[in-house]
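Below is a filled-in request sheet from our internal design queue. Each sheet records the structural input a requester submitted and the sequence that came back. We keep these sheets so that new team members can see what a complete request looks like end to end.

REQUESTER: design group, bay 2
PRIORITY: normal
MODE: inverse folding
CHAIN LENGTH: 351
BACKBONE (tokenized):
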């Protein structure tokens, strides 16, 4: 093998990997299935209670931190193995599609069946980039996954009926596809961080799938985890910590006062700006949406606020900062914000 291929001499053998991965998989699922219990135990140990600002913030932190780190580790490990089967060039060709936009449609559609919040979608975003998926396609997924998923659609359907759910689905997908296409056309790969640019340029290990053993593939997955998780975990913790503080202190009454049906045109952009610093998933924000509408807020304005919370959260931007340079983050936020504003105005006009 070439010097880019992993060596076996100083690494654990196949038996050790199988035993270790079996144990790690069981532990992963055990921890993931008890995240709520863990967060409950932590706030109880700290003498806090549900329903208080501090209690909700601390509960959110101890729930989301292990959740996102577990997702990141698992997904990056799997993507590291997958990368040994498909070179970055082949993966890029498969997911970009033969026609412009095909990859964006596929990525946005994949987001529907992945009920992640924005920070939880970041691990897949990083995994896609590391596998050589085009930048614009990865952004279509990153936008769609938190904003348009079955959790959001089911809750919207239950609360507001199928017309609102269907309109949200169509417009949400349109935002994800459009934003991904725009970012792809701008050719902003040079605004990725240097270590990500190295992956896209093909500087990651070049694997020849037919010559590798499963031991080689497991070693590649482990190396992938060390390189990527080792770089981004501080940003993840910092982002979730900020999101947890904001999550515990949602100014619901204040937002309702500026989102009324008779509010001026600028109330919608203000609602989007207010939503950006906050952080929750679709299931967490839709009860807030229902409460705001119950207080007389306009549906389009509230849904635009909802989209900004789950697709443009400040914690997500902090995590993405380890992957993207500031001009690309600003472009991403600006394009998505324009799409969200359009969706809000359409809702307010149609409904």
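RETURNED SEQUENCE:
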């Amino acid at each position: 093998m070439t010097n880019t291929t992993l060596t076996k001499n100083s690494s654990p053998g196949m038996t050790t990997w199988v035993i270790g991965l079996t144990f790690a998989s069981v532990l992963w699922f055990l921890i993931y299935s008890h995240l709520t219990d863990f967060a409950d135990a932590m706030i109880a140990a700290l003498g806090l209670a549900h329903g208080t600002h501090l209690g909700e913030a601390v509960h959110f932190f101890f729930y989301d931190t292990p959740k996102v780190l577990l997702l990141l580790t698992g997904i990056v490990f799997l993507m590291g193995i997958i990368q040994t089967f498909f070179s970055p060039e082949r993966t890029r060709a498969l997911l970009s599609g033969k026609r412009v936009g095909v990859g964006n449609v596929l990525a946005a559609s994949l987001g529907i069946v992945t009920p992640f919040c924005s920070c939880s979608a970041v691990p897949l975003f990083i995994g896609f980039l590391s596998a050589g998926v085009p930048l614009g396609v990865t952004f279509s997924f990153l936008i769609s996954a938190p904003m348009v998923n079955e959790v959001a659609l089911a809750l919207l359907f239950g609360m507001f009926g199928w017309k609102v759910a269907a309109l949200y689905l169509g417009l949400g997908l349109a935002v994800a596809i459009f934003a991904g296409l725009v970012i792809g056309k701008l050719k902003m790969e040079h605004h990725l961080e240097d270590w990500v640019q190295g992956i896209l340029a093909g500087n990651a290990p070049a694997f020849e799938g037919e010559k590798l053993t499963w031991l080689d593939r497991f070693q590649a997955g482990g190396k992938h985890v060390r390189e990527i998780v080792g770089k981004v975990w501080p940003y993840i913790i910092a982002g979730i910590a900020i999101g947890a503080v904001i999550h515990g202190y949602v100014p619901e009454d204040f937002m309702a006062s500026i989102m009324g049906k008779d509010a001026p045109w600028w109330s919608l952009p203000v609602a989007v700006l207010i939503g950006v610093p906050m952080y929750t998933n679709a299931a967490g924000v839709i009860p807030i949406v229902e409460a705001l509408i119950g207080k007389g807020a306009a549906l389009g304005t509230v849904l635009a606020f909802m989209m900004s919370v789950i697709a443009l959260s400040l914690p997500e931007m902090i995590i993405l900062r380890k992957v993207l340079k500031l001009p690309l983050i600003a472009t991403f936020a600006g394009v998505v914000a324009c799409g969200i504003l359009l969706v809000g105005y359409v809702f307010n006009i149609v409904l």
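SHEET NOTES:
- Confidence is low (pLDDT under 50) at residues 1-9.
- The radius of gyration is 21 Å.
FILED BY: M.R.
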